[in-house]
Amino acid sequence: MADLLWDDVRCFFDPDLMGSLPDMRVPDALVEDWQAALDLVAEKGWKCQYSEGEMVLPVPRAEVVLSRPADAESPTLRVWPTADVLAIFRFHADDEVDFDVDLRELRGQERLDVFCGFLREIGRRLGKPVLMDPEGEFGHPVLGFDVEADRVVALEEPLVTHAAGTVRLSRPGSARLPGGG
What we know:
Largest sheet: 9 strands, antiparallel
Helix content: 25-40%
Distance between the termini: 34 Å
Number of strands: 12
Strand order of the largest sheet: 3-2-4-5-6-1-7-8-9
Radius of gyration: 17 Å
Strand content: 25-35%
């Protein structure tokens, strides 16, 4: 059974509402969690490409990447869990595994299942939640891998469209406009 159904959560994959590159994160991470994520990529055989600026290099150990000087070229790790789904890990901080996905690639149930499987693999390996926040709205996750449930779940009610406009139900009986309080 699918973690999420496309028809139930498609609004969370709308680039106009969420931004095209929502913020994916594993909070309260350690350098060991970053290394576990790198090891997972290698073990799963997912195609990947590590680069610093424009230079493509072999994937280093997490502690090497995370100890780079602040003025060094920005490191990124591009990971393709499937040929048509890309995640880009950013290495901004050692206390949070962060990456982006392009919502324009995540259309329909098949791609949603790939995405959920990717989050599940990371969450299970790290034993931590993997959260998706709208682009630029850090701290307001709409869905994520729930460790106790061992699946990806919606953390907000899906958006509902009315004649007056789109409204997000944040809890039963209350509504807020997207991006509003």
